[in-house]
Structure formats: structure tokens, C-alpha cells
Design brief:
The chain is built from eight helices and nine strands. With 318 residues, the protein is α+β, with helices and mostly antiparallel strands.
Length: 318
């Protein structure tokens, strides 16, 4: 049941939407109707939203809204069912479509395919799906592969535009930085008289310095893990919010507010993955630096972030 506040807000948004329509400001009016419908769903609001979409050139969105209004009207034996169905039928011949084709080589890589930020189920691959005219982004990603994306312009006519996703390239191995220890080569060492041998243990000093660096690096890594954990919880909360009050449907189709939440959740999840991965690598690196603090040489540790966190390599004279 909708609260009184939600109903009041829905009514105010609906009234503002009608006022904007009266001034032919359809691009501003449609989001008002969409939010009003989310707060307090009704056949009348859905019809106004569908009409607004049609006048704004969003024929696929208008067609879907008319279909939803007709289905809701049929359940309540509302006479507006016929109007909604007739409007939907009239739009079918005007709807452009976008077909996302995944090549066999790409399909074997375990891809995650997104269209305009929303995940496409594999059952939707290769089908011409209704879309609104304008720019649409198709992206693909897989573990260990370089992400791929393209943006296409869909014309305002009843054509089908096809986008084919190729096999993704392997992620290149991370670069490894090798530290110059400064130790002389064996063939460059000259014998020194015993009485001139240095008495200061420089190796011990280097070991102490390396242990201090290790502690600082591990501390920074723990901080990174903490930050990544925060982003992970925040991403989960934002994603859950997109599913509340009907902002996103079960087939991953979302209204504007739900789509914004999904996009934010994806960005926060990526930030969490990077922060936790690099933080963990830093902690491991710090431990390695401490463990391999030199007795007569030095240890090199390289950290290289990648799409899944980070990678390390330890080079020790032992």
C-alpha cells in the first residue's frame, strides 16, 4: 500500500508533467510521469506516460507503456484497455530494433554482455529487440579479457541494426619493476686489505629500512581493503535500492531512476574490486618485504594493478 506522502508526491509530479505537456516540453514531462507512476501506479498515469514517450520520439518506450496499460486495464475490466491496445498496435510498425550478436568464439569466453548498462541474458542474444531511437552502448567483459564496447546510433525508423561482439583479447601480463640493488658484480669486486675493511654493517641498516617500508605498505594495503569493503557494501545497497518500488523489472528493464541506481552500483562494485585487490596485494607485498629483509642483498617487490585487483612479484637474492 502506498503511503499518503507517496500519493501526494505522485500527484504533484503528475500535475507538473501535464503542465509541461501543455507547453510541448515532452523531454522534461516524461520523467515526471515515470516517477509518478513509480510512486503510485495507475492506468491513467501509465497512459499519460506512454503518450509522452510517443510525442518525445521514444517509440519503443511508448509501445511498452501502452502494452502495460492495456494489461492492467484488462485485469480490472477497464474500458481504456481498447484504447491502450490500439495505440500499441499503431506503434509496432514504427519501432526500430537492435540485435546483439555474440560470435561463437566470444560466447565460449563466458561473456557478460550489457546494453546501455543493463545485463543482457544470453537468451536475448541474436534477437532483434525494440529500442528507442538514439545512441545505445553495447559492452562485453570476461575474466582475464580486455573489455570491449561500442556505441551505435539507432535511426528513427523501423529498421534492425545489428552489433556483433568479437572474441575478446587476453589481458596482457602485468609489468614487473626490477629494483637495482646497487651491489657490485662479482667480477668488479677488488680485494681490499684486511685492515681497510669497513666496520659498519650497511646491510643491517638496509634491512631495518626495508622492514619499516614493509610495515607502511601493509598498513596502506589494510586501508585499501577497508575502503574497498565500504564500496562493496554501498554497491550492494544501491543495487537493492534499484529493485525497490518497481524501479527495475524482473527482466532487468529499468525506469530512469532504477537505471541510475544500477549504473552507480556497477561503478561502486568496480571501485570495490580494485581497492580490495590492490589492498590485498599491498598487504602481501608488505609481508614479503618484511620476511625477505636482506642480510647481504636486497629484495624487489613489484605491484601492478589490473582489471581484477593487482599482481605482485618478489625477487630475492636468497
Amino acid at each position: 500500500m502506498q503511503s499518503a506522502d507517496s500519493k501526494a508526491a505522485a500527484q504533484a509530479l503528475f500535475d507538473e508533467g501535464r503542465s509541461l505537456v501543455a507547453h510541448q516540453q515532452f523531454a522534461e514531462a516524461c520523467p515526471k510521469f515515470a516517477e509518478s507512476q513509480r510512486l503510485d501506479p495507475g492506468i491513467g498515469t501509465e497512459l499519460w506516460l506512454a503518450d509522452c514517450y510517443e510525442n518525445n520520439g521514444q517509440v519503443a518506450s511508448a509501445w511498452a507503456s501502452f502494452k502495460e496499460a492495456a494489461a492492467a486495464a484488462a485485469l480490472s475490466h477497464d474500458k481504456r484497455e481498447a484504447v491502450a491496445r490500439d495505440r500499441a498496435v499503431a506503434l509496432e510498425a514504427k519501432i526500430p530494433r537492435l540485435m546483439v550478436v555474440v560470435s561463437d568464439a566470444a560466447a565460449s569466453q563466458g561473456l557478460e554482455v550489457r546494453r546501455d548498462g543493463l545485463i543482457m541474458a544470453s537468451t536475448a542474444w541474436g534477437f532483434a529487440l525494440p529500442v528507442d531511437p538514439g545512441a545505445h552502448t553495447v559492452a562485453a567483459s570476461a575474466v582475464g579479457r580486455v573489455p570491449w564496447s561500442t556505441t551505435v546510433q539507432v535511426a528513427a525508423r523501423a529498421d534492425t541494426l545489428q552489433v556483433t561482439i568479437p572474441a575478446l583479447e587476453d589481458v596482457p601480463p602485468p609489468a614487473v619493476a626490477v629494483q637495482d640493488t646497487g651491489a657490485p658484480r662479482p667480477d668488479a669486486v677488488e680485494a681490499s686489505p684486511p685492515e681497510k675493511a669497513p666496520t659498519h654493517d650497511s646491510t643491517g641498516d638496509a634491512g631495518n629500512t626495508q622492514r619499516l617500508s614493509a610495515a607502511l605498505l601493509a598498513g596502506a594495503g589494510l586501508l585499501g581493503i577497508g575502503v574497498g569493503t565500504f564500496f562493496a557494501f554501498d554497491a550492494k545497497s544501491t543495487y537493492d535500492a534499484s529493485n525497490q518500488e518497481g524501479r527495475c523489472l524482473a527482466n532487468n528493464q529499468c525506469y530512469a531512476s532504477g537505471l541510475q541506481d544500477r549504473s552507480q552500483a556497477n561503478q561502486e562494485a568496480l571501485a570495490a574490486t580494485l581497492a580490495i585487490g590492490i589492498g590485498a596485494a599491498a598487504v602481501v607485498s608488505g609481508g614479503a618485504l618484511y620476511l625477505f629483509a636482506p642480510r647481504g642483498g636486497s629484495t624487489s617487490v613489484a605491484i601492478a594493478p589490473d582489471l581484477h585487483g593487482g599482481a605482485i612479484r618478489v625477487i630475492s637474492p636468497w
